[in-house]
Design a protein that fits this description.
alpha+beta; five-stranded antiparallel sheet; about 450 residues; eight-stranded antiparallel sheet
Length: about 450
């Protein structure tokens, strides 16, 4: 399923349906050489260039009225190095294809997000992450990358080669060049046991530090208008494999999580007054379950209900206070929110503009069903997140600008200086980058 539908008259739309763009032309390069040539040609024509993946970002980070690069032909595994335990993949490879190919080879990434429709370069460039006590975002697992810069030259970046570019380009926002290949650290495939169970909101917050410390991967979903959450702990297991049965999997992951949930969203959008009742029923519909499977079958799940999302990373120690403020605000506001709030964590990393750069982080994600007015809710949530020096996910809705980022990212100036060096003419500029990185 390609989420990037090109609409009529060459209009590009993102997955959430909240961003559209009309590029001057689209290019589908079949090689790095063709991509370099397209960048040089754009410069001659005075056009900007953006590469776009599957459009899973809710910001206009990939939108352009210049040259739109589609990486569909730049896919597949280039090389598996079993001595170094790395895999090198073309930038347009969907995470789903990477996960399946690695599993066939008896390998796996250490951690991943909960959606795998995105391309590897789109996911890493925006800082896509899952949850983990020690294991961090997908970009933090990068050991090397290949980048076509504004003059069409190809840079190889690792900790040893072009290390200052490597520090920034792993989450480069598309501002430093176009990523053409990524080398990930991998490990022998392993089993995870997932334990999902409902837990009261107050108890999760009271015991959060302990739940975080005792589990390799801990996350929870809070259902607004209720005092209920659903928790999920993923830990490595010696086995045996005990996957969710096909019927139970269909019932819980498709029927409840996508089918009934979709209907509940339609009802909630049509009649907002019913939302708290739906939320109470939804929070009780999910029962406890335990299963053991290979990583991508535990970490990821299908997301067929279209939504718009905002997510902020706050310092991990500020999580409980931030969530309590969010709950209080929602209880007092009359807002009707039918989508659960998702909470995950990541350890500090060393990537210049990673949301977890230099600090242990907790992520709070708020969602609204596509087509429902989300501004009031997101504005209220954002006010709380920014009061805690929150850093928004680069691919999700937010209203922050370069001035704000220079305050919450100690190494912000390092990134913009590198961009001045690699893209002095702003070949990869668009409105979003102008706002978040400054002119």
């Amino acid at each position: 399923m390609s989420s990037t539908a090109s609409g009529k008259n060459g209009t590009w739309r993102n997955w959430g349906g909240n961003v559209t763009a009309r590029p001057a032309r689209e290019v589908e390069p079949a090689s790095v050489e063709e991509l370099s040539a397209a960048v040089r040609q754009a410069a001659q024509d005075g056009l900007t260039v953006k590469a776009v993946g599957t459009g899973h970002s809710f910001t206009s980070i990939a939108a352009t009225d210049g040259v739109l690069i589609r990486p569909q032909l730049l896919t597949g595994i280039r090389k598996i190095d079993r001595d170094a335990m790395t895999v090198t993949v073309e930038a347009g490879t969907p995470l789903k294809r990477l996960n399946m190919a690695l599993a066939r080879e008896g390998l796996s990434l250490t951690n991943m997000g909960d959606i795998m429709e995105q391309t590897v370069s789109g996911a890493t460039s925006t800082g896509t992450h899952g949850t983990g006590r020690e294991s961090a975002s997908i970009a933090a697992q990068i050991k090397g990358l290949e980048l076509v810069t504004a003059d069409g030259s190809v840079l190889t970046c690792t900790e040893k080669e072009n290390p200052e570019v490597f520090a920034a380009a792993r989450i480069g926002l598309g501002a430093l060049g176009i990523v053409t290949a990524i080398t990930f650290a991998v490990e022998p495939i392993f089993l995870l046991t997932a334990r999902e169970e409902p837990m009261p909101f107050d108890r999760v917050l009271a015991e959060f530090d302990q739940l975080w410390a005792e589990n390799e991967h801990f996350e929870f979903y809070w259902f607004p208008h209720t005092g209920s959450t659903n928790t999920k702990r993923n830990n490595r297991s010696a086995g045996p494999e005990k996957p969710v049965s096909r019927l139970a999997g269909w019932f819980e992951d498709e029927f409840l999580s996508n089918g009934v949930f979709q209907v509940a969203q339609w009802v909630g959008r049509a009649a907002p007054a019913t939302v708290p009742t739906i939320a109470r029923i939804s929070s009780k519909a999910l029962s406890a379950r335990t299963y053991t499977d290979i990583p991508y079958k535990v970490f990821t799940s299908p997301r067929r209900v279209r939504f718009v999302e905002m997510e902020y990373a706050v310092p991990r120690e500020a999580l409980a206070e931030t969530l309590r403020e969010l709950k209080t605000t929602m209880d007092r506001s009359g807002l009707r929110v039918s989508f659960p709030v998702e909470v995950r964590t990541a350890p500090a990393d060393d990537i210049t503009l990673s949301t977890a750069s230099g600090r242990d982080s907790a992520y709070i994600a708020v969602h609204m069903f596509r087509g429902t007015p989300y501004q009031a809710y997101f504005t209220a949530a954002e006010r709380i997140f920014t009061a805690h020096e929150g850093r928004p996910h680069w691919g999700k809705v937010h209203t922050r600008d370069a001035e704000y980022f220079s305050g919450v990212y100690p190494r912000f100036g390092e990134f913009t200086a590198l961009r001045d060096r690699l893209d002095p003419d702003r070949r990869f500029q668009n409105d979003y980058l102008r706002r978040v990185l400054g002119p």
